[in-house]
Design brief:
Blueprint: E1 5-7, H1 10-18, E2 30-33, E3 38-43, E4 52-58, E5 74-76, H2 87-92, E6 94-99, E7 101-108, E8 111-119, E9 125-133, E10 139-147, E11 158-160, H3 168-172, H4 179-185, E12 194-198
Parallel strand pairs: 4-10, 5-10
Antiparallel strand pairs: 1-2, 1-7, 3-4, 3-6, 6-9, 7-8, 8-12, 9-10, 10-11
Length: about 220
Amino acid sequence: MCGRFASYDAYPKLARRLGVVVAEEGPPARYNIPPGTWITGFRQVVHDALPEQLDFWWGCRPKWAKGKAAQPINARVETVATSGYFKHAFARQRCLIPADGWFEWLATETGKQLHYITRIDCEPIAFAGIYAEREDGSRGCAILTEPARGSAAEVHDRMPLILDDASLEPWLDPDLTDRETIRNAVRHLDASLIDHWVVNRAVNRPGNDEDAGLINSA
């Protein structure tokens, strides 16, 4: 799954890769982003237009799901295209969430141990996401997850779906709506590029978001 992540250098790097004009003051560096907060991502609404930056509420509840309906923060790749909650978004409202890494908790004999998982080459991570309009007109998103691969599988059985560079454009392309076409057009990041290490348990406090030391090896 993905329930906490960091995004500090990834936004401008991914924006430039997508051809998006980077604002002079982009989103602030965040080292411990929890669900139920606003996060910055990219979407594309017209095939031949450049992607655009948009703020998403991390929690996806379509406007037809009223009241206290669930706001999932993750969507499984195995079912996202067929789920009543997500299938429209998967077909027509896909997005990218820039990240530098994410956190997972590993159960040990002495309690849960926090790990930071990232790319070993320090390149930006592009989480595959979907979004839907909420009742108030804003947009909420969910990050897709897949079975963990590479060293990430040492920490947790699920991980975010991270797209390789060649998959960014087709993932955002609103003209691609067919399930098999989308799946054939995108690839996840090579598992050999994933690494992790133990970090301080201060990450357990969601409000602790501005400390760059949170991602350092404990």
